[in-house]
Specification:
This protein is α/β, with parallel strands linked by helices and 443 residues long. Helices cover 31% and strands 26% of the residues.
Length: 443
């Protein structure tokens, strides 16, 4: 018998602005009683939902059950910045430009495969352009160092034939209404999503093919006589194969312990405003320095909001307190006011934290980790795309659906070990803070 006892349950800090603006179109179902299935998926984020959709395509006659510990879109998946990025985007690196062209081309191919899968789902489930918008994004530079980072990134993209164009300060003012930025680098392949709406629309689209149970955390997972049994508060699910799409919480299922970094990032969303100097109706900026500020403007119903994401912290407890959340929100207020002085009287309406999972060697926690138990975890900071890909690949691996894509995705080392705590906490947070200080006005 293999037995896993889950001791920690996901905990979130603050209410995501995306979730607050989102409305769900289907009722909440909670697991009640004993259920038998052909497939069990744990975690209803990007990985779990993508795995469920892929399984429904590959095995349309099978019963698929998906368990979510909390409520769909209220967890990590509904708390990110909403960028689906096709070109290289390694936030643990000092810059986005890359040296290994073959590895870069492979990564771009994988990212675009995931975005294509998401686009097909968006079309099938009738998502609006506000939910799924293939608008591209700009890497914005606020310093001469940022301009140089963009120039390096542009050269590396050009060396492999990737489309891009540089944006000067005048065009940045036209786009954003702000004179804060000196320039930018536009790439057309990124998709902007409203993450909470995307996750909810995805789940609603799957509801006729997949049994989705929310508020149904897995407290114990055991394997007996070739079958896995997941026990929740008021019921259980038995299935021969299980896919874990729980990101960093894979450690709580007994795997990859001491190998994953639980990184928190922080975001604030303004109250709605009108008639301010913020440029076009919508835009999406990433920082030229990976540790800088991500800024998005969204508009609807004749009003607009701005979302700003800054700061990273490493926490092995997988949660952060309200005091830290408030402190970082104050820093974000200063950052936003520097960019948009006209918004000084517009308060933040929502402030929240979201979790990332990274490995030291920037690889996923992926594969068949026990017989019939598959991991699609550790997205390394681009969960919208990487987790979508991992979910699809896990479904392919579990069903024996071979492809060049799966072979390349599977051919990676496992996540490297971290130093013991508290050395890992001290080392990772020191590196993060030094990189944030170096980012300067990009933050």
């Amino acid at each position: 018998m293999n037995e896993i006892v889950v001791k920690r349950l996901p905990a979130e800090s603050g209410t995501s602005g995306w979730e607050a603006l989102s409305r769900r179109s289907f009722p909440v179902r909670t697991l009640d009683g004993k259920v038998s299935a052909d497939w069990l998926i744990i975690g209803a984020g990007f990985a779990g939902l993508s795995a469920a959709r892929r399984l429904s395509q590959l095995r349309p006659g099978d019963r698929i059950v998906l368990l979510e510990a909390g409520e769909i879109a209220k967890g990590t998946a509904g708390r990110n910045s909403g960028y689906m990025i096709d070109v290289p985007h390694n936030i643990s690196s000092g810059e986005y430009s890359v040296a290994d062209e073959d590895a870069t081309k492979t990564e771009i191919t994988q990212n675009r495969f995931a975005i294509s899968f998401a686009a097909d789902a968006a079309a099938e489930y009738d998502m609006s352009v506000r939910t799924f918008d293939p608008s591209g994004k700009i890497n914005a530079a606020a310093t001469e160092r940022g301009i140089k980072l963009n120039a390096n990134y542009g050269r590396s993209l050009g060396s492999i034939g990737e489309e891009h164009r540089f944006v000067d300060a005048a065009e940045m003012r036209e786009v954003t209404g702000s004179s804060y930025y000196l320039g930018g680098l536009y790439t057309p392949g990124a998709v902007m999503i409203q993450p909470a709406d995307y996750i909810r629309d995805f789940a609603a689209g799957l509801a006729s093919k997949v049994d989705i149970f929310e508020h149904s955390p897995v407290l114990r997972l055991e394997r007996r006589s070739g079958m896995w049994k997941a026990m929740s508060r008021n019921g259980s699910v038995t299935a021969p194969k299980v896919i874990l799409g729980v990101n960093g919480h894979i450690e709580d299922f007994g795997h990859f312990r001491g190998r994953l970094m639980h990184i928190f990032t922080y975001a604030s969303m303004t109250a709605p405003f009108t008639e301010r100097s913020t440029g076009k109706d919508k835009w999406a900026l990433l920082p030229a320095d990976p540790m800088g500020a991500t800024v998005r403007k969204i508009s609807s119903d004749a009003s607009s909001r701005i979302v700003i994401r800054t700061r990273f912290t490493y926490d092995w407890a997988v949660q952060v307190g309200e005091k830290r959340l408030a402190g970082i929100a104050a820093e974000q207020r200063t950052s936003l006011d520097a960019r948009f002085p006209d918004l000084r009287d517009v308060p933040f309406e929502h402030v929240w934290a979201g979790r990332l999972c990274l490995s030291r060697n920037h690889v996923p926690a992926f594969g068949e980790i026990e017989e019939g138990l598959y991991s699609a975890c550790c997205e390394n900071g681009l969960g919208t795309v990487k987790s979508t890909l991992a979910g699809v690949m896990a479904a392919d691996l579990a069903t024996g659906t071979r492809s060049d894509m799966l072979d390349k995705f599977s051919d990676q080392p496992e996540p490297a070990r971290l130093p013991p705590e508290p050395l890992a906490w001290l080392g990772v947070n020191t590196v993060i803070r030094l990189q944030e200080l170096r980012a300067g006005r990009e933050g």
